[in-house]
């Protein structure tokens, strides 16, 4: 669903041969694969080992759409991961991306989340060549993101887990929250980064049918906290109800969204 975002950023930064790219929160590796297909040397980190396994598959000959291997360094964690240090010893990164929407980092208190994200970005920027690009991305205004109506369901159901006195999990489950107008700029300032342009990209979420839409949204991990606070059956039921206004006569589900990106310089 976020391919238009990846492509817009890579086109603007002319990502290709000669680019050394670090993907923070690289997930299942689609953004890395697109960058590697453009000729970039890629390195990615994520906190979910299962998603990293998918990224490894995608970046091998068997997993690549054209059957070509895409050499990449992948590691568990953040910019402190050994694979990042190894990649940085070869040469400094020229581009760092944080494509995971900031709202997906909303586990725990917002203040703690922003502080941790800023520290991670500052650490990643330290391994970037002078003037290198650091890209942040997030959801656009809620009124322009139809999916935000559905994601609010998960945030509401997860409220008990965030109540005072509730037993905290380590790490805490991911929980959606909307992005404010200046969230990207505020995060960049905390990380000591200098903004150097921004843009908005249409990223509609489209699914073949209701079941595909529910499964696709659950795969984002943004409903994990809701499932733990209630139960999976209840979460699926409420997601389905929230999706009904977006289901077309032919059964497909379509939700227009806008994502925003901010380009900074290290």
TrEMBL record:
An MF annotation (GO) of this entry: S-adenosylmethionine-dependent methyltransferase activity
InterPro entries to which the protein is assigned, alphabetical: Methyltransf_11, SAM-dependent_MTases_sf
Domain Methyltransferase type: 22-64
Gene3D superfamilies: Vaccinia Virus protein VP39
Protein name (database record): Methyltransferase type 11 domain-containing protein
Species in which this protein is naturally found: Streptomyces violaceusniger
